[in-house]
């Protein structure tokens, strides 16, 4: 059974510390030993006094709650840097995954593609402007644009893409 930390806010005052201790105790009634009170900052002198007065141990200190790669639910599926954003989104949809590791040519992790990052790529308030198109094979570009290649060209293509709408209020979200 995995231990679950019950946390308050970053600069815990006495009521925050009392709340995590009480809530962890309440949750442990249903699943004994699973929940553990924790805190994200130093104890104030009055909190230390209250804990000592009632004979309670201070909650465990958690140095940081910033997520790390090790904390993410990562699939064994990965992509290399040359895979298009559209193909990554399709892969995530097909496998119902939220994060995809991005590796270099030697299989070393160089980054992560996640739902949040993809959403930021696709959802913009800006309705016009230039975008840089990374070099990619014509078949990939055709797939992204839902197009058909009429005359195949050798190699990859890159450049700038301009998008302009004469009625931005009619643009799809």
Describe this protein's structure.
The protein is α/β, with parallel strands linked by helices. It has helices at 14-30, 45-53, 85-95, 115-122, 138-144, and strands at 4-6, 35-39, 60-61, 79-80, 99-103, 109-114, 129-136, 157-163. The chain folds into three domains: 4-61, no CATH class; 69-123, CBS-domain (Roll); 127-165, no CATH class. The protein starts with a strand and ends in a 10-residue tail after the last strand. The relative contact order is 0.10.
Short description:
The protein has 173 residues and is of the alpha/beta class. The chain is built from five helices and eight strands; from the N terminus they run βαβαββαββαβαβ.
Could you tell me the strand content as a percent range? 15-25%
N-to-C series of helices and strands:
EHEHEEHEEHEHE
- State the total count of DSSP E strands: 8
Strand line-up across the major sheet: 1-2-3
Given the helix and strand composition, which structural class is it?
Answer: alpha/beta
Rough outline: elongated
Low-confidence stretches: none
Total of DSSP H or I helical runs spanning 4+ residues: 5
List the domain count as a whole number: 3
Topology of helices and strands:
Blueprint: E1 4-6, H1 14-30, E2 35-39, H2 45-53, E3 60-61, E4 79-80, H3 85-95, E5 99-103, E6 109-114, H4 115-122, E7 129-136, H5 138-144, E8 157-163
Parallel strand pairs: 1-2, 2-3, 4-5
Antiparallel strand pairs: 5-6, 7-8
């Amino acid at each position: 059974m995995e231990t679950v930390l019950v946390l308050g806010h970053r600069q815990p005052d006495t009521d925050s510390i009392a709340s995590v201790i009480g809530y962890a105790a309440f949750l442990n009634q249903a699943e004994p030993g699973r929940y553990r009170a924790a805190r994200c900052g130093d104890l104030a002198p009055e909190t230390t006094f209250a804990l000592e007065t009632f004979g309670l141990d201070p909650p465990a200190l958690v140095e940081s709650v910033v997520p790390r790669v090790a904390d993410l639910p990562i699939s064994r599926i990965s992509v290399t840097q040359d895979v298009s954003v559209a193909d990554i989104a399709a892969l995530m949809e097909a496998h119902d995954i939220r994060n995809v590791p991005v590796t270099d040519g030697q299989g070393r992790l160089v980054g992560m593609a996640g739902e949040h990052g993809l959403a930021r790529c696709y959802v913009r308030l800006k309705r016009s402007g230039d975008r840089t198109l990374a070099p990619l094979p014509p078949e990939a570009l055709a797939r992204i644009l839902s197009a058909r290649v009429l005359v195949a060209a050798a190699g990859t293509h890159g450049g700038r893409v301009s998008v302009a709408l004469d009625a931005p209020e009619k643009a799809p979200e």
